[in-house]
Model the fold of this input.
Amino acid sequence: MFGHVFSYRLKCLVRDRDLVFWTLIFSILLGTMFHVAFGHLTTESEKFQPIEVAVVDNEDYRNDPSLQAILEELSSAGQNHMLDPVYADEKGAEELLNEGAVSGIITAGEPVRLTVKEPGIYQSILKMILDEHLQTTKTVANIISRNPQVVSDLIEGMQSENGYRRDYTEQISFSGVVPNINLVYFYALLAMACMHSGFWGLRNAIDIQADLSDLGARRSVAPTHKMVVVLADSAAALVISFFEILILLAYLSLALGVKFGSQIGYVMLTCLAGCIAGVSYGSFIGTLVRGHEGVKTGILIGSTMAMSFLAGLMWVDMKYIVSVKVPFLSYINPAALIADAFYSLYVFDTHRRFFINIGMLCLISAVFCVASFAILRRDEYASI
Amino acid sequence: MQVFRAYFKVMRGAVASLAINFVVFIGLAVLFSFIAPQARPMGFEQTQVPVAIINRDTEGEISRGLTQYLEKVCKVVDCPDEPERLQDALFHRQIEYVAIIPFGFSDAFVSGEKCPIQKIIVPGSTESYYVDIIINRFLDTVNLYKTYGGTGGSDSLSWIISSAMDDLQVEVPVTMIGQAAVSVGYQTGYHYYFNYCAYALLALITIGVSTIMISFNEPDLYMRNVCSPLPRRRMNLELAAGHTVFAIGCWGILMIGGLIMHGKSLFEAGVLGLYSLNTLSFTLVCASIGLLIGTFVRSQNAQQGVVNVVTLGLCFLGGVYVPQSIMSKPVLAVSKFLPSYWFVKANDAISLLSDPSPQNLGAIHTSMLIQVAFAVAIFSITLFFSKEREA
Done:
């Protein structure tokens, strides 16, 4: 009997084109929009590029060999290539700045000056370079006034092959992943898609309650045990939603190039746990909320959107802010748990956090299932 | 005026959808107004990169000096010495640089041994490059004093560090030309608000107008209306009046919302008129899209899907959610064929307007006229196909 109810329920659900749109097509479209809008913004776009800067080629500049030497050193190809200077007269330099072709204008003089159009990281680096010129002059003057006998050593030391500059830092890494923040959007999108499996759960809940639909009334008088019907319905919903999520996952990773790490088994486990949470949440809303189908659908859409928002779907920082400020909320929000499971699989080498997320998802799903069945069981209708 | 009255009776059926979209919009508008900086910087401000310092050499004087210097020139974020928390913060760009000062760093530095500061960064990022310069600058200066500063009682590490700190305060003068708020990072709250108006107007007006058109185009109702004594022209005029009142009403509500949230800064900047005009142009576009959807879509369920796809598509591709300045060139090339692109382009130009000269205003007016042209084109297409279908 289980197989019979399951197969017919499967056919019945698949033919609901509206639900297929909201649970699959809508997520694919949204993922495509994300990709089109900011898919090109990888960590490559954050990389440092030599700064385009205009240098006013005037009398002062030609009489300032130390500034010339600095600009020459920083514009020559190699590890220290920081600047791409353009030499121009004062008016030409201003035009370049106004056109946005350069980040700033360096004007030699006493002291050397920097002109910019807006504050920013490249302008700050330019300022640091020019500050260093002044600061080193002051340091050298201080040392010589205090310790005149080191003049020749000092000059020799500063003019040696590496000069006085050193790199005192060494890059290390907790894991080999590239921290691309935009991935959080796609993980939150998958979380939303999993929670949209709730539409199938809701449809099941409506189609089994005699006071909500004609189909529910017909099925209530059938001799099949309610438990068998509920399990078959849920299994059908789960199969469809899991299949949809796998299609979405394949589209995101293969067509759009979203990275999920190499642990495909765990990624699919997260999808399955997410679908179970989604379907059980939909059943829970369908049985708990009393009222018209529109009210239940509205509550389901509103709550899943709120969960997805807190998981970072609309504003990527939100997931982190919630996890730091209100960590409790992260542990009871299924969408945040799903998104964080994908995130922890991608970022961390260990599975501690991943299994906490999956464990919490299973627990939440169990609570929804038990609550739904407790409401549904032994329902009797005196009048419909 | 039966049709005009019926218009708003039918509209009641769409109140739930309209309310949900309006609440979502207000939520986003409040959120982004809250995130946007309240005041524009008046002069040049050096970028303060968020840095987490893990000082495992707390007793070392140089480590303390370096920490103090970083606190002055960077935005030091308090983060526990736990890899998972640090990794989280770095991934979400709450910090751009983790500087771990190893135990014994100061002693090693004084004795000239190699004991590097460990950094965890977004590989090759500009921000990490900038912090590298800051750290190396400080330690280079300390090293110069240590190597050449001479010996004697006063040559203690504290003297070296205070001398280095003193030297590092010397700065070149920076002049700002043009308007200080040109940077994307300094978008005002009202700029976000008016950009998000595109989403609200699209969602509200297309749902409202298409709901009415779907109801009035229902075959039975349509045939009943055709054989009524009310002339077709009169009926269409009343429908058009209903659409106009509804669309202008949505526009008015959003304008009042803007005034309530950003009235003071809008009046100070003197750009309320331009924003209102631009938003009104886009209102025309939305009404024409609503008519198009209402003419071609037959069921309420399909309408929800189409409205969502159209709204999200126009907003994402037009630069409502993601600034046009960071969108890729191929996408922008396609976006130019969408009205939302011109709406956002005009909004961006208004927010950067420092001098309302005819030349500067010309570009804004052109963007508005292009939107009106889009509205006329969409309206003409709708009219053409509905006449075809009638025939």
